[in-house]
UniProtKB/TrEMBL annotation:
SUPFAM superfamilies: YdhG-like. InterPro entries: YdeI_bac, YdhG-like. Signal peptide: none annotated. This is YdhG-like domain-containing protein. Residues 20-113 form the YdhG-like domain.
Length: 199
């Protein structure tokens, strides 16, 4: 499916926040950003660099700012997408169309564009890696029992392998570890990294 078709589907499919996300789209397009489609969401770029995106969910819709951590946020509207994990990404959540404040939205988008034009962005900090990667027993067993997933896992970068190992290890309860494993095995099998959507 072409990008234009994916965008058409996103903005035309029946959804409680349809008219609201169309308003956000209109405001973003007025800024001159280029519209594309990434990670199942309309994404807006400047010189091929991600600036903002639109998301719609069951109970809210949102604008994501890829380098929102650098925005001043005078109205205290931005939230960290994954507290403790994401350094740069911030989102502005809305629970209804009546919460859309066009002037404030334009103000934040303009600030994000200005930062991008200056090349101001948050660079991920490389964590020091130990020489040996030790996989959680649960993940190791699952990979041993699934040759296709093991082959795909082995071809991932060490950083992506560590992300998966950490994701399982961080879960405190066994049932959480098992549910996380069920979630990541299909991603591993197709060669995806756990955090690819944020990179």
């Amino acid at each position: 499916m072409e990008i234009s078709e994916k965008l058409d589907v996103f903005f035309s499919e029946e959804h409680i926040f349809n008219s609201a996300v169309l308003r956000l789209r209109s405001l973003i397009l007025e800024s001159g950003l280029e519209e594309t489609y990434k990670w199942s969401f309309p994404t807006y770029t400047l010189d091929n660099k991600n600036v903002v995106a639109i998301g719609k969910f069951k109970n809210h819709f949102a604008i994501w700012f890829f380098n929102g951590g650098l925005l001043k946020d005078p109205y205290n509207l931005l939230e960290n997408v994954q507290e403790g994990k994401t350094k740069a990404m911030r989102h502005w959540k809305f629970n209804g169309e009546d919460e859309i404040d066009a002037e404030k939205i334009k103000e934040y988008i303009d600030a994000a564009i200005a930062n991008q034009k200056k090349g101001i962005e948050i660079t991920p900090i490389k964590k020091k890696q130990t020489a040996e990667l030790i996989l959680p027993e649960l993940l190791q067993k699952a990979l041993n029992n699934n040759p296709e997933a093991k082959k795909a896992f082995d071809s991932l970068s060490q950083t992506k392998q560590r992300d998966y190992a950490l994701y399982i290890n961080e879960a405190k309860m066994e049932k959480t570890k098992i549910s996380r494993l069920a979630k990541i095995l299909p991603m591993i099998s197709v060669g995806k990294g756990l955090n690819d959507q944020y990179r």
